Automatic annotation (TrEMBL):
Residues 187-218, 257-297 are annotated as: Disordered. Residues 345-423 form the SH2 domain. This is SH2 domain-containing protein. Residues 145-180 form a coiled coil. Keywords: Coiled coil, SH2 domain. InterPro entries: SH2 (IPR000980), SH2_dom_sf (IPR036860). It comes from Silurus meridionalis (Southern catfish).
Amino acid sequence: MMQRILHEMYVEPELLSELNEEQKQILFYKIRQEQVRRWMEREAREESSQKSSGLPKGERKHIQWLHGIDSEVWVWVMGEAPGDRTYEQIIKELMEEKARRQAQLEAQELWRKKEAEIKKKFRDAIAKEKARLVAGKWKEEAEDRKAAKQEEECIQKELKRREEEERRKGEEEVRCAEEKRVKELFMSLQQEQKQSEHEDKEWEEQRQRSKAADAEMMRKARWARDEYKRQSIRAMEKGHFKQQIPVSRRHSAIEIDTAAKSQDQVLPGDKDRPRPSLQPADPPLYRRRQSRKNSSTAALPLMDSPAWVRAPRPCSRESIILWFCEDQKPKRAGFDRKSSTIATWFHGIITREESEKLLQNKPEGSFLVRVSERIWGYILSYRTATAFKHFLIDASGDYYSFLGVDQNRHATLSDLIDFHKVG
């Protein structure tokens, strides 16, 4: 189970909820350790691929730092060298230049619009005046056409003068608008700079908090690993559990025992025949012996070992009972070591609440083992002085071990219990 978690780098939420805080810390530490191992392997592969490519050493990807007079890595800090301007001065000049350029562009656009309006205004006025002069009878009645022409020229000069005055006035308005816009843009850029500095500061504080949280998590994982080693050494010297008390077994344990007995009642001559109780299972949990009978190819390998393909996790109560009868009962899981009866500490398929109810009024150190409905294995429920603890026992392979806590592997379930039991 641990190998599958490290391979997929994913823990199912239901399985994670079964682990206590100590088990979660150790599992997190192992996942981070696997990530570091994969990263180092990838770096080693890239380095070996560069060496095997046959490129000269100077043409490979590498980084070479410049060195100063003191033979140390040359570092230039902006603003600290002689003659350097400070960072604030450079930023201020850049913002002023940016504001000035933008204001100039806006002023040019405004002046083009203003000039077009002025030209259109006086062009229309001149046209109207010419039309009035042409249409007017006073020009036809004037004895001296020269006087009329001079009068027309005077009118045009007056209109031109007024046009120049209007132009100068428009230029002054555009210049004032440009200066005002420069100030507005400069203030806006300053506010954006302050906002950016504030966001950078917040991001740096958040990064520091994240690094501190990672360091604290690594420290806790390291402490949990050291504490587990100390507990393992102490358990190897004098054991870990007190003598379990005989508590009444529930109907679920009797259910597994009844199913196991029904498996033993098959006649010797019918051992190789398909069992009727297993036929309705669709799809089957294992590749049963029927595969030999129904297969048309005699050269196919026989699948009679406990390593038959099974689902990643139990899908129903019937599949758990079938797994126990086919895979665990031949290993005498849950049975007493010296007899053919069920051990006093084994209680079959019961819930977490039922196990805590059985241990409610029992002394500290009392425990029981129940079949897990979440993984292919068991759960050891343990009574402490103030609460209850539940440890997952992985039985998906050919051995038994505590998931995420105990790395010792045991051949049978009884060996695991006896290893940690005293009294």
